[in-house]
């Protein structure tokens, strides 16, 4: 999908795609070294990769938590350390896409819940550290729309709405939007035609 998006920009677009394993610090460092070779400031960094696999505190192997930690927390941490110094454009943004904190989450979502809380805390800390530098930090909290009562949200529509909300928050120049909360809208089970 990313390659198709790049192709849709046309042959004159100055664009490149890089792949790296966020769980491997060396992979992340290699990708950032390539970005440094371009000798252009970074204006936007979006942390949207991650993992969500079932697991319970009481009986899941600790290796499952480690995998969540590497992808949901440590990877974005290392990437932020390396990329934020390259963000020299006024109004540059670092965006963390996380899930909503819930006390009523289904049993078996422990690893995801713990690491999403850590990602939100990291975004809050980065916001403090970059205050006054021109880099703004946005936390996007996407609720689990599948739990909305009678929710009939199409996943593609939800993703498009989420993306539109993020773009609106990122391009805002008059306000520093620090958190954007997005959830699916409950809809009636049936609709009447006139």
Question: Can you describe what's shown?
Answer:
- By secondary structure, this protein is an alpha/beta fold.
- It is built from 5 helices and 4 strands.
- The chain has helices spanning 2-8, 25-37, 62-83, 110-130, 155-171, and strands at 44-47, 93-99, 136-142, 179-182.
- The chain has a 4-stranded parallel beta sheet, sandwiched between helices.
- α3 links the parallel β1 (44-47) and β2.
- α2 (25-37) packs parallel to α3 and α3 (62-83) packs parallel to α4.
- The longest helix has 22 residues, at 62-83.
- The radius of gyration is 19 Å and the shape is globular.
- The relative contact order is 0.13.
- The mean pLDDT is 84.
What are the main properties of this structure?
globular; 5 helices; alpha/beta; 4 strands; 4-stranded parallel β-sheet; 194 residues; single chain
> Which runs of at least 5 residues are low in confidence (pLDDT < 50)?
none
- Spatial arrangement of strands, main beta sheet: 1-2-3-4
Overall 3D shape: globular
SS content category = alpha/beta
How many helices? The count is: 5
Largest sheet: 4 strands, parallel
Helix amount? 40-55%
Order of H and E elements: HHEHEHEHE
Number of strands: 4
Report mean pLDDT, rounded to a whole number.
84
How much beta, percentage-wise? 5-15%
Tell me the Rg in angstroms.
Answer: 19 Å
Span between N and C termini? 39 Å
